Amino acid sequence: MKKAPDFEKMKNDGLPISVITCYDYWSAKIINQSNIDIILVGDSLAMVMHGHKNTIPATVDLMVTHTESVARGATDKFIATDLPFLSYRKGMSQSIDVVHRVMEAGAHAVKLEGAAGNLELIAHLVESGIPVIGHVGLVPQSVHMLGGFKAQGITDENAEYILQSAISLEKAGCFSIVLECIPAILGKTITDRLKIPTIGIGAGSNVSGQVLVLHDLLGLNSEFKPKFSKQYLNGVDLIKCALNDFDDEVKNGNFPTSTHSF
Ligand code: KIV
C-alpha cells in the first residue's frame, strides 16, 4: 500500500498519481486489485449513491458507514475520506471528533474543502499525525455561494485567491491538494509553485495526478457527462444487457438449468 509520504516522492519522480472515488465494499474489492494509487470516499456519494442534487446532505454517519465498507474491501489501498458539509466548521473539538470517527472507520487521510478558516484545524490534525488533503477551485460544499457547479479561477483576482489558498494549505501541512474545475494554466501554476502533489479534476494535464468519480469512469450514470470526465466503459448498457439476458432466460425457461439446481 502507498502511504502519504510516497505521493510527494511520486511528484518529484514525475510519476502521475491516480485517484478514484469509491463508496462501497464490492467496488472497493475490484479497485483493490487495480493499479489505482488512492481511493477517495468522496462526499459526492450523497449525489452518486443517494440521489441528492449536491453534496450538502452528506452526513458524518454516512461518511463513516461508507468508509467502513470501502476499508473492508480495499485492504491494500490508501483511503482518504471527505469531511462532510459543516462537520469541520463547528470548532476544534467537534471537528476533531468527526476526524476521529472517520479515521476509526478505516480512512488513512481526510480531505476538506477550502483554506480560509480551516488552517488552524489542518495544522492541528497534521501535528496529531493525520494526513490531510486540501481542495480548492470548485468546492462543491459551497455550491450555493458559488452560484452553481461552475469553473473557478477565471478572473485574475479569483485565480490569485485560489493560488494563495493552495499555498496556505501547503504551509498548514496538507500532503496533497485537489484542484477542481480551474483553467489548465492555473493548475500548472499551482503545481509548479507547490512542493506537494496536486490532484486535478478538470484542472488540465499539468498537475501531479487525476481524480475521477468511479461511476462517471464506468459510464454508470448516463444522464451526467461532465466535460472534465472521461467514460472508459459503457456500464449502463452492459448492465442493462445482463439484466435483460437474465429476464429473457427466466421467461423462456433457459435459466435455471440442471447445473444451477440441487
Ligand atoms: O467528493 C468527491 O468525490 C470529490 C472529488 C470529485 C474530488 O471531492
Question: What is this entry, summarized?
Answer:
The chain has 262 residues and is of the alpha/beta class. The protein contains eleven helices and eight strands.
Task: Spell out the blueprint of helices and strands.
Blueprint: H1 4-12, E1 17-21, H2 25-32, E2 38-41, H3 45-48, H4 60-73, E3 78-82, H5 92-104, E4 109-111, H6 119-127, E5 132-137, H7 143-146, H8 156-172, E6 176-180, H9 184-193, E7 198-201, E8 209-212, H10 214-217, H11 235-252
Helix pairs in contact: 2-4, 8-9
The structure holds 3-methyl-2-oxobutanoic acid.
3-methyl-2-oxobutanoic acid binds next to β6.
Oligomer: single chain
Q: What is the average per-residue confidence, as pLDDT, rounded to a whole number?
A: 97
What number of structural domains do the residues give? 2
Q: Percentage of helical residues?
A: 40-55%
Please write the CATH class name of the largest domain. Alpha Beta
What name does CATH use for the topology of the largest domain? TIM Barrel
N-to-C series of helices and strands? HEHEHHEHEHEHHEHEEHH
| Regions with little confidence, pLDDT below 50 for 5+ residues | none
| Beta strand % | 5-15%
The total of helices stands at 11
Polypeptide structure, described:
The protein has helices spanning 4-12, 25-32, 45-48, 60-73, 92-104, 119-127, 143-146, 156-172, 184-193, 214-217, 235-252, and strands at 17-21, 38-41, 78-82, 109-111, 132-137, 176-180, 198-201, 209-212. It has two domains: 4-231, Alpha-Beta Barrel (TIM Barrel); 235-262. α2 (25-32) crosses α4 and α8 (156-172) packs parallel to α9 (184-193). The chain is built from eleven helices and eight strands. Helix content is 42%, strand content 14%. It has 262 residues and is α/β, with parallel strands linked by helices. Strands 1-2-3-4-5-6-7-8 form an eight-stranded parallel barrel, surrounded by six helices. β4 (109-111), α6 and β5 (132-137) form a beta-alpha-beta unit. The structure holds 3-methyl-2-oxobutanoic acid.
